[in-house]
TrEMBL record:
Signal listed as a keyword: yes
Protein name according to UniProt: Metallophosphoesterase family protein
Gene3D superfamilies, A to Z: 3.60.21.10, Purple acid phosphatase-like, N-terminal
The species this protein was found in: Gryllotalpicola koreensis
All copies of domain Purple acid phosphatase N-terminal, residue ranges: 55-146
Record keywords, A-Z: Signal
Signal peptide: 1-44
Family matches, as Pfam families: Metallophos, Pur_ac_phosph_N
Keyword Transit peptide: no
Domain Calcineurin-like phosphoesterase intervals: 155-361
Amino acid sequence: MPETAATHMLRRGRRRATVVLSAVALGASCVLGGIAAAPAPALAADTPSANQTGIVLGVGATESQRILSWYTAVDTAQEVQLAPTAALVDGAFPADALSFAALGAANTTTTGYNRHATLDGLQENTQYSYRVGSDGDWSATYSFKTQSFDGPFDFLFYGDPQIGSSGDAVADGAGWADTLNVSLAANPNAELLVSGGDQVETANTEAHWNNFLISDKLRQYPWAATIGNHDVGGKAYEQHFYTPNTDRTAPYYSNGNPAGASSGGDYWYIYKDVLFIDLNSNSYATSQGGGGDAAHVSYVTDVVNQHGAEAKYTVLVYHHAIYSPADHAKDGDNKVRRVDFPTTFSKLGVDLVLQGHDHSYSRSYEIKNGAKANPDEQPGQEEVNVGPGGVIYVTANSASGSKYYDITAPDNSGTSGAGNGADPLKPQDYWYNSVQNQEHVRTYVKVSVQADQLVVQNIRSGTCAAPNAAVERGKVAWCGPDSGASAAQPVGSIVDKVTIRPNHGDGQDIQVTVPQAAPGEFGWTIDGRNGLVDLGTAVEKPGDYFEAQGQINPIAVTDTRNSRAPWSISASVGDFRDGANTFSGKFLGWTPKVTTPGAGAAAGAPVKSGFDGGDGLSVSRTLGTAGQGHERGTAKLGAGLDLKIPTEVSKGSYRGTLTITALSE
């Protein structure tokens, strides 16, 4: 048996007894934070129900949160059941699995009901399993893993899946699912999936949403949704995605009516060292009642002023690209945003802007206040050391292959501000773009967030072969680099890569990484050999009892935890037995003591033998304690034993078990 508790053996005779105390070890009971360390029994696994659909894991307000959204066919109270995956037994959740209540309402765009729940208090570096529904009506079980809550991380950015835009939603969904599979197979530790908008072609067509949500990757990695112009025309977007810190007031809706038939809202969240701000760029036409660009500028300003100091980088995400190379490059609304947005973004120290809408890839030069910041920056430059106010803008290509836009030509409208003039360094491209690309193959963008740089890569997730719906259905006339003159490059090959080094102003920023301190340990052992404690021969005393005295084997308590949380060691003894004969453990008493100070230890109160009244050690009694904030270290606890045995107890050799329990927060 492990050395974690002590057993005492008593030997005595009818009128002259021999008493021996044996320290045979037994298993200890350890309680942390008031919850027994032993795993809770598992509940029976349920057969998954078909009532819960459209389940999607969303980003939370911080790295310790996730938000789950789903549809249910029944109007019942719904919840999320969550537990560390290691706690599941044969797929069944433990009885102490966490439960998070869901909110929601009836769908306005289809039958059924929408629900969402925020999972809070997640621990880092933990694999979790979850299911949604209610008792007897659970979904299938899915899982996700948290990473370290500090330090470098990668996230993936996807442009315009726009499921249904090729005319074949199933084919579009296949291309989208393949991009998710390819990108996450190559980057399994990516921590966020960030949307460029236009999840679907038609806002309220659930067949499009079903094919968008077909991949289980959207139940395993958090999706940071963005509203596109094809998402905004109904409430399905809001029903499918619940986002954190969202301002759903009138200025952030295109028609100024949150209760109307459109979706909207601006939101923000902080993940590790990045402040992400996501805008509904559809709210730009103030004549329709929305707040327009001025509202978004105000929102970004307020969020950065309030929360910018909590992060090292600021990344903006919205749908309508203001610097892009294809069909939408000269749209009037984008020209307006190209004037309204950049100066504020520069002033606020934004590092990176991620955009969609134009179904092609571009990476801007360093832009400051609506103009190229550094005339010497070369096209395709692989490293950019941005100056004060410098911002890089990236537009993502189609991630599904449902629709591509071909690159368009510059004009003579100017080379700053709203202009679409030519780049003097490469006149076939727009003045603002360092890189422009369209090959009619699926791609995604990988962003590596590091201590003093952002590394942005545009990576091919497909070739000209299926699944590539726009090519398969003849929506485009060619495929491959150089307008189809060259063969398609392999999956995983890089279209563009740039390292962005942020500006540190006129001073010298100094950074140091403080690692997580070792958590330390709390526990106890028998000090030295856990041998026999011999109380000798019980001596008959006046008053009709025998008495034996001695000392327990010392117990060493070690607490090196950084939390310096309170702890206590207590013990109780059961009945003493010799064959069929017994006497109560209440007759054993003790006087605790600290034999070697340390770990903040203080001795428990003396407990008299139950022969003199009371329950003695038959109920749990404190051997030693330490309060909050105590010193770290090791203490040794002891106790003098006082056993008083009524004379009517039969002669024999008796054994009782002292069970020792450690408790700590």
